[in-house]
Amino acid sequence: MELLILLYALPIFYFLFMLWKGVDARRDQECYILDYQLYKPTDDRMLDTEFCGDVIKRTKNLGLVEYKFLLKAIVSSGIGEQTYAPRIIFDGREDNPTILDGITEMEEFFYDCVVKLLARKSISPSEIDVLVVNVSMLSSVPSLAARIINHYKMRDDIKVYNLSGMGCSASLISVDIVRNIFKSNKNLYALVVTSECLSPNWYSGNDRSMILANCLFRSGGCAILLTNKRALKHKAMLKLNCLVRTHHGARDESYGCCMQKEDEQDRLGFHLGKNLPKSATRAFVDNLREISPKILPMSELLRFLIVSLVRKMSQTSSKVGGGTKPVINFKTGVDHFCIHTGGKAVIDGIGLSLELSEYDLEPARMTLHRFGNTSASSLWYVLGYMEAKKRLKRGDRVLMISFGAGFKCNSCVWEVMKDLGDANVWKDCIEGYPPVSLANPFMEKYGWINQEDPSTFKLPE
Questions:
Q1: Is the dihedral of CA 452, 455, 459, 461 positive or negative?
Q2: 277-319 pLDDT per residue, tens
Q3: CA angle 134, 230, 12 (to 5 degrees)
Q4: Which H or E element spans position 33?
C-alpha cells in the first residue's frame, strides 16, 4: 500500500518541482534599472540665439528663401536657448569635420556619465557583464564600445554590442537586447550607453529637407545600469513590464522618410522627408495595437471593442461615414507618458492621438525646450524631468514611446519600484520649469528677414 502511495506521489512531486523551477527561473529573467546618469555638457557648449544666428550666417550656401524657412522652423521648434552643440561648431569647423572630432565628442560624454553612474552605485567596471552602446551616425574602428572597454579595463568575457544606424529609437532596442540576454543568464549587470554624434553630421547645403536637422538635433546622452539580480530588487528604480518593437522597413515610403544621404551637390546630410508624419503615424498605430493588450485592463479593452462595434453597426445602418473615432483610454493602464522629443509636432501629434492633457505632455515639452532633440537619449531626459518633479511614485507605470529611422516605433512600460526624486541634470533649473512662456527670441531678433526683398537682400556683416 505504501509503495502504491509513493508511486502516485512521485509524479505529483515532480510536477510541483518543475512548476516551482519554472516560476523561479522567470524571477531571474526580470529586468531592473538600478540607476541612470544623464549627460550635461559644459556651459561653453551652450547655444544662445545670437550664436545660432552667427552659425547660420556663416553657412554660405543659404539664400533668403532658406533663411526664412530656417527662421520659421526654429521659432516653431519648441527649442530654447540652453541646448548644447559639439565643440566643432564653436571652433567654426563644422564644414570640415574629422573622425577625431566625433570620437572626442563621444568620449567627453562616456567619461563623464559612466564614471558618475558606477561611482554612485559603488560598482567596479570589471563587474559589468553586458555592454550595449548605441550611437547611430558614427561608426569608428575600433568601435565606440571597444573604446569604453579599453578605458575602463572591463573583463575579457564581457558581452558587447555596438549599434549604429538605428536612429532615435535605439535606446529601447538596447534595452531589448539586455532583456533577451537576461532571459538565459542569471545575476548580471548590464550597462547601456545611448547618445548621438553630431560633429561629423552638420549639413552645409541648402536642401530644405536636410537643413532642418541642423535646427532640431542637440548634444546629449545617457548611461543606464540594469540588472536581473533578484537580491537587488529592493534597490531598483524601475522594472521592465513589457517592450514592443515595430519596424516598417519593408515599406519603401517608410524606409526612405529619414535617411542620411548626399544632396545634388554631394554634400552629406540627414534627409527628413515630407512623408515622415504619415510613416510615423502608421508605425505608431501598429505599435499601440500590439502593446495595448499587454498594458491595459480588460475592462478598457472590452469598452473600446463594444464602442467600436456599436459605431460600425450604426454607420452601416445609416450608410454614413465620418464622425469621431473611438479612442482607447491609455490612462487606465498608464500613469505617466515618456514621449520622444522629436519636435513640437511629434509631441502634439501623440498628445492628440492619445487624448493626453498638458500635464501629461509637460515633461516632453520641457525637455525639448531645455535640451532639444538628443536623439535616442531624449526619453531619459524626459524621465529625468518626471523624477526631478517628484512625479514618480511606487507602483506607477511609465509608457515610453520612441521613433527612429527605418522606420521604427518602439515602446515599453516601466513599473516604478520606489518613490523617486533625484534631480539629475535638472538640478540647477527644475525650479524654473515650466516657464511662463516657451517662446524663443529668434523672431524678435531675426524677424526682419521676413520683410526683405530677394532682389536687394544682403546679410549684414
A1: negative
A2: 888 989 999 999 999 999 999 988 888 888 878 877 776 665 5
A3: 125
A4: strand 32-38
Cβ neighbors of 295 (< 8 A, separation 6 or more) are 241, 242, 330, 333, 334, 397, 399, 413
Distance CA 455, CA 461 (A): 18
Cα distance between residue 216 and residue 180, in whole Å: 33
Report pLDDT digits (tens) over 107-147: 999 999 999 999 999 999 999 999 999 999 998 999 999 99
Residues marked active site are found at 168, 247, 336, 340, 369, 373
CA dist 52 and 291 (Å) reads 40
Amino acid, single-letter form, for residue 92: G
How many whole angstroms separate alpha carbon 245 and alpha carbon 84? 30
Cβ atoms 166, 136 nearer than 8 A: yes
Contact 52, 446 (CB under 8 A): no
The residue written with cell numbers 515630407 in the block is 274
Q: Looking at 183-297, list the stretches that DSSP marks H as alpha helix, in order from N- to C-terminal side.
A: 208-216, 252-255, 276-295
456 alpha-carbon distance from chain centroid: 44
